[in-house]
Amino acid sequence: MSYQAITFKNAVGLAAPHTWAASVFPVLLGSLLSVALAERFDPLVFLPLIGAAVLLQASVNTLNDYYDFIRGVDLKENSDEPDDAVLLYNDIDPKRVRLLGACFMGAAVLLGVYPVYRGGLVTLLLGAAGCLTVVAYSAGKHPVSYLPLGEAVSGGVLGGLLTAASFSAFTGRVDPRVWVLSVPLIVGIGLIMMTNNTCDIERDRRSGRKTLPALLGRERARRLYGICVGFWGFSILALTLLFFHRGTLASCLGLALSGPALLRLLRAPLVPALRSACMGAVMRAVLWTSCSYLAGIALDILL
Fold this sequence. Notes:
Layout (H helix, E strand, L loop, with lengths): L7 H8 L5 H18 L4 H28 L15 H4 L4 H18 L1 H7 L1 H18 L11 H22 L4 H6 L1 H17 L1 H6 L5 H5 L1 H26 L4 H20 L7 H28 L1
């Protein structure tokens, strides 16, 4: 069977730039915390960190699409968006897509060499853990994405581990406060995955995926979702007040502006027919709330 070559448009679609906020914001948070808690910052570390984080996210997205395709999870009957199912709607060799995902990861590792050199063993171990999680998320006999761990792992690795790795690249250590201060990003990024999985309950059940929403059912999943959204906003205000009180006004203003986005999440039915709208809403909410949190920390540093 002959296949078409992967075009630049295909590669971008597989990398899914609309999800990159989930990797950029943790690097920004880790960088701000290195200034706030340790008075350390180096643009020569910061720039490759951003690039490595984005490429790691691109690798996750590409490999996840590859494994969903070869396992028969993505079908035209349940994936009616060509931009969200590149392998289904383009005659591309799946092996080349797998290679592209590996290339994204390889490029991320290369960009991470200097930050790891500056951060030392701690940064190396955190970075290695992140790369292993990328593979374990979609590959293997029991991938993480097929278990009721996806929300916790995606939030914990991107929101927590990546923030800690970024902080350690500047400081050479991990401060326990960094993990606590990562909670808003851990919850927000976990909610991205929960939005997707709740919308896809029926498809995931048919394919044998035992995601958390698939086990809970839509109504109980939506109740848990609402609790997480409320805790998300509360955690931003509480942590800003406790650690960066001089920036509280900025965080409050940002959360007020993000109020409509958060309300849309609370009212979202999270059904397959509205999957695109729900994913767009949660990504906008993550953008607004993360900016609110970072603005509060940045203002506290400046004052």
